[in-house]
Amino acid sequence: MASALPLGDPAPADGRLPDQVIEGAAERDLGIYLHVPFCRVRCGYCDFNTYTGDELRGERRSDYAGQAAAEVAFAADVLHESGLPDRRAATVFFGGGTPTMLPASDLIGMLGAVRDRFGLALGAEVTTEANPDSVDERYLEELAEAGFTRVSFGMQSAVPHVLATLDRTHDPDRIPLVVEWARQAGLAVSLDLIYGTPGESLDDWRRSLETAIAQRPDHLSAYALIVEEGTALARRIRSGELAAPDDDLQADMYELADELLGAAAYGWYEVSNWARAEDPVATAEAGMLPSSSPRTPDSRFVSRHNLAYWRGADWWGIGPGAHSHVGGVRWWNAKHPAAYAERIRAGVSPAVGRETLDASTRELERILLESRTRAGLRVASLAPDARRAVAGLIADELIDPAAAFVGRVTLTRRGRLLADDVARRLT
């Protein structure tokens, strides 16, 4: 099971938001996140709010699309009644769990609910996560025909023993097949990788990177494995069956990822995320770029939904355990699908907790999140003490001196490895 929900104030049954959320709302994008909390098996490292078939307490996966559509309608009513301006959804993201465990018609129906109640902005980004073994060619075609624009495959590794340690069940040889199917359907493709798995060597990680790059996806994410308490992986490490991840090796793995991805014409735009640069095909034909020549990612291929999180935009999270944020107010839904469904059937908010962020907390979060992005922070937006810290960060080679000269705090590669420390020194 996922970790406990945060503490907070009780959430009102009608979901009504305080007046403060109206200020500046017209300038903020709105995203919709739909959490699909189902998995065929539970991966040993996973701490997400997901459930296998025998954990659903009588709830049926076949009922879920209707429940999610009901919350979409509830969300639209709450935002309108709270005085926010009507905004079309700029991004829609299906995450999980494994959204593609549901029939394509269910995902399409949920997207239809968003379209009907909010509308989709011109050029809206619509993404679903998928396991490589949970889709086929026709499934992806159906999604594309219904308006999905991206698919993010949980590749994690190309090395069988690493996948086995993570309890991932897909065949790594299936990755090229699903990528090609998605591309033929007209979907942009992202691949998610994890590094630092116990027993994974630097050569193993290089093999995974090179395999992922060979597929020429539009976007790649690479996340350091975090061992979460309560997971099967944590128990195996605690018992001595597996070694804990090595911080120094993980740092080496990150540097290798940035080097290989930069050489293959991908540019970083957030600490763990890279997107294709303007013309990677021409770059590949001309020869590999030196790692000292970072590329600017093409804005068409970045995850605009994830950028909205890092930039403090508004989003409504649909589904069990989903979190939402609108104008400095954050809330979270009942975790278990049965508890969530009960509230939906009763016609009340599925939220079970809420907090209103004060100005100092919002500023702290802004620095923590924006400093992780390539766009970085405006020096002028920082408090005086934080501005004085910039010189020391340059001296420690944590931020780019050229960017600082023109008034922005942008992390160097070394700074990305120490991003939390940089954020602390700026607050």
Describe what you observe in this structure:
Helix 1 packs parallel to helix 2, helix 2 packs parallel to helix 3 (137-145) and helix 3 runs parallel beside helix 5 (175-185). The protein starts with 29 loop residues before the first strand and ends with a helix. The longest helix has 18 residues, at 64-81. It has a nine-stranded mixed sheet, with helices on both faces. The protein has 16 helices and 14 strands. Residues 280-292 have low confidence and may be disordered. The protein has helices at 64-81, 104-117, 137-145, 160-165, 175-185, 202-214, 232-238, 247-263, 280-286, 304-310, 337-346, 359-370, 384-395, 401-405, 413-417, 419-425; strands at residues 30-36, 89-96, 120-130, 150-156, 188-195, 219-224, 266-270, 273-276, 314-318, 323-326, 329-333, 351-356, 377-378, 408-409. By secondary structure, it is α/β, with parallel strands linked by helices. 37% of the residues lie in helices and 19% in strands. It has two domains: 19-310, Alpha-Beta Barrel (TIM Barrel), CATH 3.20.20.70; 358-427, no CATH class.
Based on the model shown, name its key terms:
alpha/beta; Elp3/MiaA/NifB-like_rSAM; iron; globular; TIM Barrel; 2 domains; metal ion binding; S-adenosyl-L-methionine; 427 residues; single chain; 16 helices; nine-stranded mixed beta sheet
